[in-house]
Design goal:
Blueprint (H helix, E strand, L loop, with lengths): L3 E13 L11 E4 L2 E6 L1 H9 L2 H4 L8 E3 L2 H12 L3 H12 L22 E3 L1 H15 L7 H8 L7 H6 L15 E3 L2 E3 L6 E7 L14 E19 H7 L4 H17 L6 H4 L7 E7 L19 H20 L5 E6 L7 H9 L8
Antiparallel strand pairs: 1-9, 1-10, 2-3, 3-7, 4-5, 6-9, 7-9, 8-9, 10-11
Helix pairs in contact: 3-4, 3-5, 4-5, 9-12
Length: 359
């Protein structure tokens, strides 16, 4: 039976604009007929990947998302002493395993760009460069299918790829199914963005010349309590990491820490938004996963929106359990204002979903 780790977070954001739409305004959604502010799943996963718990805690086990791997191979060969034309042709052949190579840019004829923003693991990067070295030494490159098998892997030590998956359209046999699903975060209550009109003053302008501002601008922001849900297929996570349960446990600890502390960084210099989750509900079990968004289809109200959100979340979890049976075998909660639980305790709880770990 598959073991699932489910995480439900409530986080209060100050006035901020962490995730913007195409017009620079906070992203929004209509839920239950009411306007809400929204943080996209993609922006959240990006924030998780670049957070200290991932970048520092999982150093050496993080992939790179890039269109420029072929260009890295080209530069590597030139540093080894290859001429520009040979380096380019070899890099194109190796780089195409990650996606088709775009036509040469007239402004930058030597640069190589892929058409796919591909997730590449440290092992795959190393294999690509090793193959380039062999080609530089005079060995023939493998044919297309063998080339892919030489460079690509279906499982290795890249935790972020194991968690969030990847798609390689030209080599679908090396796609990876995401072991972690992350929702869009929405405010638990009615919320809309506000517009700010601002001016900036020229320090060298004298008041007797002109008392007005030197710059006029508009800026949008919003605030609210956001609900965020994530579900981890623990068995698939271990499988994607080639059976390394200890590394999977490190990944789960990093995921919990990052989800509690990381945030999309749009307009962060303007707002200094660095919120931490006020309430986290972690669940482990083999029952079919379910999110608790239904708790907020009727927007919560009142003077204390965070407390009202915690109550609605807890009530919905209880109601679903009564109707369908327990959704988890074990539950652990951290609530900051109630002084219940700790983040370290939640990290240990999440890692326990994989069973006992080696010392």
């Amino acid at each position: 039976m598959t073991t699932f780790l489910q995480l439900h977070l409530l986080t209060a954001y100050p006035p901020s604009n962490p995730n913007r739409d195409d017009q620079g305004r906070p992203k929004q959604a209509t839920v239950g007929g009411a306007p809400r502010l929204r943080l996209s799943s993609q922006s959240i996963k990006r924030a998780l990947r670049i957070s200290p718990p991932f970048q520092q805690g999982l150093a050496g086990h993080m992939g790179q998302r890039t269109k420029l791997m072929a260009n890295e191979v080209r530069r590597h060969l030139i540093e080894r002493g290859a001429d520009a034309e040979t380096a380019r042709k070899t890099a194109e052949e190796i780089g195409k395993v990650f996606g088709k190579i775009e036509a040469a840019d007239k402004k930058r004829p030597d640069a190589l760009h892929g058409t796919t923003l591909a997730f590449i693991s440290p092992d795959e990067r190393a294999f690509a460069l090793e193959l380039a070295d062999k080609a530089f030494a005079g060995e023939a490159l493998p044919t297309d299918k063998d080339l892919a098998r030489t460079v690509l892997r279906t499982a290795d030590g890249a935790v972020d790829i194991a968690m969030f998956g990847r798609m390689l359209a030209d080599n679908p046999g090396f796609n990876r199914e995401a072991a972690v699903q992350v929702s869009h975060a929405i405010t638990t209550h009615r919320a809309q963005s506000e517009d700010d009109y601002f001016t900036a003053v020229d320090d060298l302008k004298r008041r007797d010349d002109d008392a007005g501002g030197a710059h006029l601008g508009e800026h949008s922001f919003g605030s609210g309590v956001y609900y965020l849900y994530a579900c981890v297929n623990c068995d698939l996570l271990v499988e994607n990491l080639a059976g390394d349960r200890d590394l999977a446990a490190r990944g789960l600890r990093a995921l919990v820490q990052a989800m509690a502390t990381a945030t999309p960084s749009g307009k962060q210099n303007s707002h200094a938004h660095r919120p931490r989750a006020g309430h986290i509900r972690a669940e482990i079990g083999s029952a079919t996963p379910r999110d608790l968004t239904g708790a907020f289809f009727s927007p919560v109200k009142g003077e204390d929106l965070l407390e009202a959100s915690v109550t609605a979340l807890t009530d919905m979890a209880s109601a679903i359990d009564e109707a369908y049976g327990p959704a988890a075998d074990r539950v652990q909660i951290m609530d900051v204002r109630a002084r219940q639980g700790t983040l370290a305790g939640l990290e240990a709880f999440a890692a326990s979903a994989l069973g006992p770990q080696d010392d």
